[in-house]
Design the sequence.
């Protein structure tokens, strides 16, 4: 993996001066991105003593200045420039990262760079996909991926996909000015949860039966169902719903119950979901 980055001469001299002041032989700088691929993306520089860099980091030399770029952040750091701003005698590094807020799209097929925890679909069985395994993405929605490996389907959680260098497509919500939990934001959050076998979110599938919001306790309660009572992924999907709701501003806790009365049917599908599934 390569990275295209630039350090201006002024920034080079400034960083070298800062490193010298640390009085630690071999001290370098590590560059990484927080919340890459979102509107809240932030590029960070940190001192990196010898041995604290990750084995997966990308090392790049700018003369006698060495930078380590976090592997997972590289897609968002491409074409970045580190410069220097000076005002009233105060020098401050500046960072331009034009790709920081662009969601990273994974290739259709890729090789796992490390062992990955996964869930077999549809049984929900926990397995480990080993480093070097070649997988093909069949679905990449809501931050989790469904991949095909040797004819079987597996779900990779958002945490796993982020470690592989791919970021979630989750929405970043703006906190309401009234300090309340937004009903619309809760529904939008649940629309980021997908059945691992069907490219339709749980709201579109008609799996959400009830959403109750307790504004005083900052608590949300959801009652939902599954397309099949025997679905081995039910606990995982319900957990995903709760995780997404906890990302909604002012939500401090929540509960998701799975029920089967009334049972799910195709009549529950939203019109957009019917179009997606070719039922109209």
Sequence:
């Amino acid at each position: 993996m390569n990275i295209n980055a630039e350090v201006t001469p002024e920034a080079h001299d400034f960083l070298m001066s800062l490193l010298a002041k640390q009085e630690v032989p071999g001290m370098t700088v590590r560059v990484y991105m927080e919340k890459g691929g979102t509107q809240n993306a932030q590029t960070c520089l940190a001192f990196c003593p010898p041995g604290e860099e990750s084995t997966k980091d990308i090392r790049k030399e700018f003369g006698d200045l060495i930078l380590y770029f976090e592997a997972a952040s590289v897609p968002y750091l491409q074409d970045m420039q580190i410069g220097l701003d000076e005002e009233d005698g105060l020098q401050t590094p500046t960072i331009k990262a034009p790709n920081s807020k662009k969601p990273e799209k994974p290739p259709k097929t890729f090789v796992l760079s490390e062992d990955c925890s996964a869930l077999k679909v549809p049984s929900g069985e926990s397995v480990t996909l080993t480093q070097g395994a070649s997988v093909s993405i069949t679905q990449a929605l809501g931050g989790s991926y469904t991949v095909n490996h040797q004819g079987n389907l597996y779900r990779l959680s958002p945490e796993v996909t982020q470690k592989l260098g791919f970021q979630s497509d989750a929405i970043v919500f703006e906190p309401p000015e009234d300090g309340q939990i937004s009903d619309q934001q809760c529904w939008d959050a649940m629309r980021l949860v997908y059945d691992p076998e069907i490219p339709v979110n749980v709201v579109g599938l008609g799996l959400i039966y009830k959403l109750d919001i307790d504004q005083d306790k900052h608590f949300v309660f959801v009652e939902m169902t599954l397309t099949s009572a025997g679905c081995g992924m039910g606990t995982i999907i319900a957990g995903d719903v709760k995780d997404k709701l906890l990302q909604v501003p002012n939500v401090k806790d929540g509960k998701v119950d799975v029920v089967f009365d009334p049972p799910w049917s195709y009549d529950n599908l939203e019109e957009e979901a019917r179009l997606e599934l070719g039922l109209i």
Notes: The chain has a mean pLDDT of 88. The chain has three domains: 5-96, 109-163, 183-276. Residues 9-21 form the longest helix (13 residues). The chain is about 20% helix and 35% strand.
